[in-house]
Design brief:
This protein is an alpha+beta fold. 24% of the residues lie in helices and 21% in strands.
C-alpha cells in the first residue's frame, strides 16, 4: 500500500482511494465543486492584515493553495459579498450541482486549515451525493461544520441522503 501525506493528513493510497482520485480526473465542468468564501467576514478572532478583513484573506489563501492542490482542476473558488452567518465568521460553503451543500464557519485564514478545506472539497467531489462520513473529515476542519443544505435540483430523481445513518 502506498502512503501519501496531504496537508498534514496521512492518507493510505489503497485501491479504493486510487479509484476516487481516478474518478476525480474524469469529472467534467458540470461536476466542479464550488467553494464560496464570504469576502466581507471580519471574524472576531482576526483583526485583519493591513486593512484586509479575515474573509478576504481567507479567499486569497484558498486561491493560492488551490493552485498547488492535486485536485485543483475540479475546485472553483469564488468570493461572495456575504453569507449572512456573521456570528460564525469567517464562513464558506462547499457545493456542487445535485449534491448536499455544506456551510463551514469560525474559520481563520491559516495555511493548515485552508489545506484541509481543499482536502475536504476533494472528498466531497468524489461523493455522488456530496455526503461524506464525518469520521473521515480532516481533523482541523471537523469542528467548523455549521450545517448542510439539501440540493435544490438533484441530478437523479432517486437521490437519497446516503448519510442519514451517520
Amino acid at each position: 500500500m502506498n502512503r501519501a501525506r496531504v496537508s498534514g493528513i496521512n492518507l493510505t493510497m489503497d485501491t479504493h482511494n486510487q479509484d476516487i482520485f481516478d474518478g476525480l480526473a474524469a469529472m467534467d465542468d458540470a461536476d466542479t465543486v464550488r467553494i464560496s468564501v464570504c469576502g466581507t467576514c471580519i471574524d472576531c478572532s482576526n483583526a485583519g492584515e493591513a486593512g484586509i478583513g479575515a474573509g478576504a484573506r481567507l479567499f486569497e489563501k484558498m486561491t493560492e493553495a488551490r493552485d498547488g492542490h492535486p485536485c485543483r482542476d475540479v475546485l472553483q473558488i469564488e468570493k461572495i459579498r456575504c453569507l449572512m452567518a456573521c456570528t460564525e465568521g469567517c464562513t464558506l460553503t462547499i457545493g456542487a450541482r445535485g449534491k448536499m451543500k455544506y456551510l463551514l464557519g469560525r474559520l481563520e485564514p491559516s495555511d493548515d486549515l485552508v489545506e484541509q478545506v481543499l482536502d475536504f472539497a476533494a472528498m466531497y467531489a468524489a461523493s455522488p451525493s456530496g455526503v461524506t462520513p464525518n469520521h473521515e473529515w480532516p481533523p482541523l476542519l471537523a469542528p467548523h461544520f455549521i450545517g448542510r443544505v439539501p440540493p435544490c435540483e438533484p441530478n437523479d430523481p432517486g437521490w437519497e441522503d446516503d448519510g442519514a445513518d451517520l
